[in-house]
Design goal:
heterodimer; A: 275 residues; alpha+beta; B: 392 residues; alpha/beta; 11-stranded mixed sheet; 3-stranded mixed sheet; 21% strand
Chain lengths: 275, 392
Amino acid sequence: MTIQPALSSFAVWTSAGVWINAAPTAEGGVGSLHPWSEGPVLSAIHPRARLPHALAVALVQLAHALLSARDTVGGVPILNREEVNLLLGTVTGSIAADFEFWSGVQKRGAAFGSPSTFVYTLPTAALAEIALALGIRGSLATITAGTISGLVSIARSASRVASGRARACICGGVEFARVGDRRSGALLEQDVIALFLVEAHPGFMHWPTIRDWQSGFAPEDGASHRVSDSLPLSTLSALASAAVRLGSSSGAEDFFASSSDGHWAKITLASPQHR
Amino acid sequence: MPAAITAIGAVSGHGMGCGRLLRAVLEGRSAIRKVTRFSCQDLCSSIAAEAPSDAELVDAAADLCQPPASDRSSRLLLAAASEALQGRSWSASRRRAVLVGTTKGALELATDRWALGEMPGEDILGVPARSVALATRTLGPVLTLSAACASSAVAIGEALALIEEGLCDEAIVGGTEALHPFVYRGFHALKALSASPAAPFDAGRCGLSLGEGAVVLVMEALEHAEGAQRAPIAIVEGFGSSTDGFDQLAPEPTGAGLVRACRRAMERAGVDATAVDRYHAHGTATVHNDRMEATAHTTLFSGRPVPVCAVKGSVGHTLGASGALDVAVCALTLQRQVLPPVANLREVDSLAHVPAVIGGARSDRGRLALTVSAGFGGINAALLLRNPKAIQ
């Protein structure tokens, strides 16, 4: 029996604000994440935190909001976090921490790099902080496929759930390249964290289903697939908005995104009653 | 559904090719020696297992007919790919995937730009995978996986998934990591480097030694390999992964997370621990890792003395490439029915007591092997490999 993957919750944080299971109403301009004054206090949700990087703090806060939103839904059992996977797409990876560590070594000397910053030069370190804080014990990795990495992570997560390899996956995109007022990379102008929870559809919920997912690489033949060079923020915001629409109406929507270096992905999101 | 490994290419501290790697590992030789590529002045160690020069790497990859790669990680990966892909012609195909595990990708492209006061505009992590995809005209998924020191093991797991799902007939999968002063200084900052060559599970060990290298495997659906009359070197039967949720650096001391990953791999393959004949350890030679693995081994096998192999005393810790390197050594030695010794191991630590293979290689008729990876962030991964003779 094939399991139908569904998108049960999402949380999007951009330079314009934070949206939990609500359609992002503004994309914001160039810049860092919007201050989230009403967000959860780190010490309350992660008492064991030790010098976490700014990205890790933001990820823990947003993941906490995502899982809280999911677990307050009536009629479905609370997720067993030991079975939740973390697979986030990123093209910028750990570049902000990389730049901080590199700058520190340039300033203080080769033997005086900051160990607490070096920890976060692994792209998965900020995700591991989510596991530490929120009790997640499934697999954990980042996936990179150009600027559409976030969409690819959702496609691969849908595949894991459909095949029974995972009960639930936190997926989506995380792009964070700012160190204070400075940027460490020129690939993307906007920082964004967009988390989606993909899990098996229980049948009776109004969660949009992920009906189809594909990805590939077409460096020379891209024009036949390519709608435009897709940026993580616009792609993932559009997906979040569609999830809201399809949760309350019938229909299906295709999302196609591609990167200038040839990666492409397509996801079909459908309302649960759509055939 | 299992998948076949039908070709392997490797570049390591022992030089170019699987042959050199295998001979050195079986002889218990270590490639860990004084670093030549950058200064280690004022650092707590000055040794590592360095791979061949950039010029040799470019030469080795010449038959792939690609422009020379702009970064060392891609050069390492392309040189390994050249060996693995030898004798095959590659038509453009959407039924082929490329998956690469790495922690830092083409990091030097970023540090070079920063040194000039500029910002990198490249997809730093994805550069090596794209270079192999272009060389092989791959049109299926081209993915870079990062999961700390389990990165390339996770990439192999993802390749198995793509084949199981029927999305691909074959996957070119591997790992790559270049030795970069940035990373060396980071491990110095963490006080994790040993001044003497790493000696996994040894009573006198005092930390890890870094290495660099790349491994490329060709994995295929069994019927695809059979149709092309390519004999499997090994069969990948299952993959499992988990997260400790214990600490960013130290593993969970009881090894519960690693055991969970191993059990998930065995469950996918439909076997239990009593069927496993050998265990290829992560074996970093840090006290935390080795003791955790010894405890996990006891739990997993209920005290049964399943032989333990480990390669990091021979090739150093190649970080994101280490999972694929372990799989390559496991597959090649499983096929030859031999257990490689743990290089630099003289006397097993009584607090990390494992039935390690000490001294020299020994023959072994075992058919099923577990290879494991355990990385920072508490990430664990396990792959179950079978000698193909066992299913004929």
